[in-house]
Structure formats: C-alpha cells, structure tokens
Amino acid sequence: MKKHRIAVTVFTVVSLLYVLPMVAVAINSFKKNTYVRSETFSLPDSESFAGVDNFVKGMTFGNYPFAKSVIYSVLITILSTALILLFASMAAWFIVRVNNLICKIFYYLCIFSMVVPFQMIMYTLARTADKLSLNTPFTIPIIYLGVGAGMAIFMFTGFVKSIPMDVEEAAAIDGCGPVKTFFSIVIPMMKPTLISVGILEIMWIWNDYLLPMLVLDITEYRTIPIHIQYLKGSYGTVDLGATMALILLSIIPVIIFYVSCQKHIVEGVAAGAVKG
Amino acid sequence: MKKRELTIYQKSISKWGWLFLGPIMAAFAIGFLWPFLHGLYLAFCDFRLVSEAKFTGFSNFEKAFSDEGFRHSFLFTAIFTIVSMTLINVLSFMVAYYLAKEIKGTKLFRTVFFMPNLIGGIVLGYLWSMIFDGFLSMFDTSVLMDSRFGFWGLIIMLCWQQIGYMMIIYIAGFKTIDGSMLEAAKIDGANGRQTLFKVMIPNMIPAISICLFLALSNGFKLFDQNLALTAGLPITMSVDGSMVKDTEMMALNIYNTFYGQSSFGHGVAQAKAVIFFILVAALGIIQLKLTNRREKV
Fold this sequence. Notes:
The structure holds two protein chains of two kinds.
Chain A (H helix, E strand, L loop, with lengths): L1 H27 L4 H6 L14 H7 L6 H33 L2 H14 L3 H14 L8 H21 L5 H8 L4 H12 L1 H17 L2 H6 L8 H11 L5 H21 L1 H13 L2
Helix pairs in contact in A: 1-13, 3-13, 4-7, 4-10, 5-7, 7-10, 8-9, 10-14, 12-13
Chain B lengths: L7 H7 L2 H4 L1 H21 L2 E2 L7 E2 L3 H8 L1 H32 L6 H9 L6 H16 L10 H30 L2 H9 L4 H12 L1 H16 L3 H6 L5 E3 L5 E3 L4 H10 L6 H31 L1
Antiparallel strand pairs in B: 1-2, 3-4
Helix pairs in contact in B: 4-14, 5-8, 5-11, 6-8, 8-11, 11-14, 13-14
C-alpha cells in the first residue's frame, strides 16, 4: 500500500533523528574539550580527535573514581530490588489470603503512599536514615524497601488475587506449612509479575538521583547519577569531553540491559502503567 | 476486598504475620510513614535544626504563599505540565496508531522510540544540554540564557524521553480493540477518520486516561531533568528585590528552599512540600473522577 510506504519513510527519518542525541554523545566523547561546544555536530577531525583520552581522564574525574560509583550503583540496585521483590510479594500474598484489619489498613496506607511526592518526605527521611545509620550502600536498600513498598505491594496484590487457593489448600492438607507453601508453590506462579515489578524497580533505583544523594554520605559513596551531577556542580570549568565519555559509559550498560531483555521491559512497563 | 469467613487454611497463615508483614511494615514505617507524619508536623514549626523546632501554626504557609519564587515556580510548572502532557499524548498516540498496524520495521521503530526511557533524568539533562548548547552556541547564546530556551528545551527533552513509554501503552490499547468492530465499520463504509474518531478513540478511553494521568504527574513532579538541564536559570530580579529563577519548577524550588541558599527556614520549605503534596494528590483525585465519569457515559 502506498500510504504505508509513506509512513515507513517518515518513521525511518524520525527514528534516525531520535537516535541522533545518543550518537552525538558517542562522537563527542572522542573530541577534545574545547571542540565539544564549538563543533558539536561534526565528526572529530585530526585536530579535534582525542582518542581515548577522555575515557582515561573520566575515570578519575571529579576527584572520585568512576569505577567506585559504578560498583555502588550496581550494589544498591541489586540489593534493593531483591529486598523489595522478596518482602513485597510475601506481604501481598499474606494481605490477600488473611485480609484482616491490619492487612486492610496497611494496604490502604500503601496506596496512599503512591500519591505522596518524594519532596514531601525527603527532608525527614534523610534525617531518619541518618539517625538510624542507614546511610551506607549496604543499608540504603532498607530505605528503598520502605519507599518502594507501596507500589510493589499494590502490583503484587493485583496478581495474587487471581491465583486460586485450591492448590495451596491441597498442599496444606498434605502437611505443607505456610512458609513452604509460599516459597515452593506461590513464588513459582508469581514469576511473570516478579519479573515485571523487578524491571520497574531496577529502572527506578538505577536512575534515582535525589534519594541516594540525600541519604548517603556523599564524600564517600556516590552512585552514577550523583557522580555525573557532581561533575557539573562543583568543579568550575567542566571538561565536556570527559563528561561526554562518562555519560556514554553510563548509557552503554542501560542499552545492553534493554536489548537483552526488551520483551520483559515492555511487558513490565505495560503492566506498571495499568496501576496508574 | 469483600468480607468473608476465613477457612482453616487461611487461619493457619494468619499466625505468620510477623514474618510475612513484619519486615516490610518496619521498613515502610522508617521509609514512609514516620517521615510523612514528621514532615507534616514540621510544616507548622519554625526550625533550622529539628531539635529546636517551635510550633508556629500557619506562618510557614503564609511565607510560602508570599514567596515570589514559589508562586512563579507554580505557574511555570502548571504551564509546562499542560504543554508537555498535550504534546506527549498527541505525538505518542500518532506514533502508536501507525506502529500498531505492523508496518514494515515496526519492531525496530518501537525499540528506538522506547530506548530514551531507560536513561535517567540527570544523565538525560546533561546529554541534552550538550545538544542544545551545541546548537545555540552558533547564535552565541545558551539554554541557560533565556527562559524560553529553557522551557522548550525541557519540553523537547521530556517528549524525547516519554513518547516511547506512552506509545507502548497506546499500542496495547489499539491491540485490545475488537477486530470485528473495525471490520463492521469498514463494511458500513466508514473512512479512516471516522473509524479513528468514532470507533477507535471511544474504545481507547482507558489507555488515554492512563497516559494523560501519567504525563500529568510526570510533568508536575519533574525534578532531575530540571536540575540537570537548567537548574532554574536564568535568574531575574523581581520588583521587591527578591530573586526569581525563571525555569525553576516546584520540586526544584522546594529542594532549593531546603538545601540551597535560601533566606527561608526549613519550616517554610516543608510547608511548600505540603502544598505540593496536596496539589499532586488533588490532581490524582480529579483525574480519577473525570475518567470514571467519562467511562460511565
């Protein structure tokens, strides 16, 4: 059909424009500092080409090793996501199955927490975290568990309601206790939802800037977004070439993650949107 | 959740509450409940240090409302939210309309459009500040020099980031439309436009309301991108001598009142946060009511 051919052409052009900003980052990460601003949209020539200098410089840029930020980002994202998936799925199952007054109150508090913007709690949260010594990358997952509980429990309860109780009851009659029932029967059934919620949590925590920035001791612990923000924030004239190199390095793992589990990500997003 | 008698099985589970609910309830209390209640209380106190908080009633709210910068940030946020919500939804609906038809290359196009979504706000802000400044430097200016550049810069950046996200939801919406309904429309001689407006859009109301709400709340609560792209600049002096950051949105204004060089105490910042919370919650409730009514009709 002719109409579709036009659509395909238009989409091809738009798609090329769409990836241009990311291509521009890649190109500029190989340029010397002064050329990034003056010749942003041209390929590096013999004059402006910096080789891998920007990447080497970027590693220790901002008086903080970039590798350390990467490690902290990975650590915090994995620990927090694991903690949220485990405890939120447990709570959701308990809430649906037992459904007593405490469950109901807690469930509605969870829903309520979803409409409260982070700015409302950030100051007192940072203070509480500090008081309880939850301000390290190893303890911040507890904070993430608390802040992320609402949405995770909401999404899990939606799914658990659709699981019939018969199988569990049969297992109970065979002498299977609640804990074993949950981990050997319920968890395997929840796998698709666990993946969806897991993806949403990873996307949130990996990119989160304000919470770790307020909770962590910044002189010692920085995540990637904090590191990038500090480059511009506090060191006078910024080396744009090195900044671009670091931005490229922080986008690459995201793209790899996206390409390798695109199907799950898209499903997770669609599932997460329904909660809106 | 309807009320019913618990079976023996359910009763046997209920003894395990300390294990299943305990840990997450404790974390919830630390990470949300206590900070929320404490924050609510502190909005009515005057303090620099929490230990010295003195109850002062509504004076923080009066100060917040009389702050020119805060009022400006509300206006800026409101206009920004309306413009970005409209643009993102119209564009992503159009994209989804074609990509749901499985035209050649659909899969690749979807992949490309969705990709920016995974990049965090801070990184996104610096990425686009390079692009905008690279372009604007040809005219000897910068995205930080003129609030119009800042405004449209934020709009372009947010569209780039979120069109792919909304597109996914709209495509899912298009896929739920019953094929026989479209066929019936075709047999009845409906043209493309009639099919779109009379058949597709009425069936897409759930998807449309989800996307409108998401774009609304994303726009209204925007922080990271705002901080990284413009940080609120440029600054203008208002008539009474106070400084107003032209492209500062509400979330950033609250942040700066807490942690920036602000003449206000923390109590005023917390009061602003409470106002912000009430606005966000109200928007959510209004949105919910509106879509419920529309769905009933």
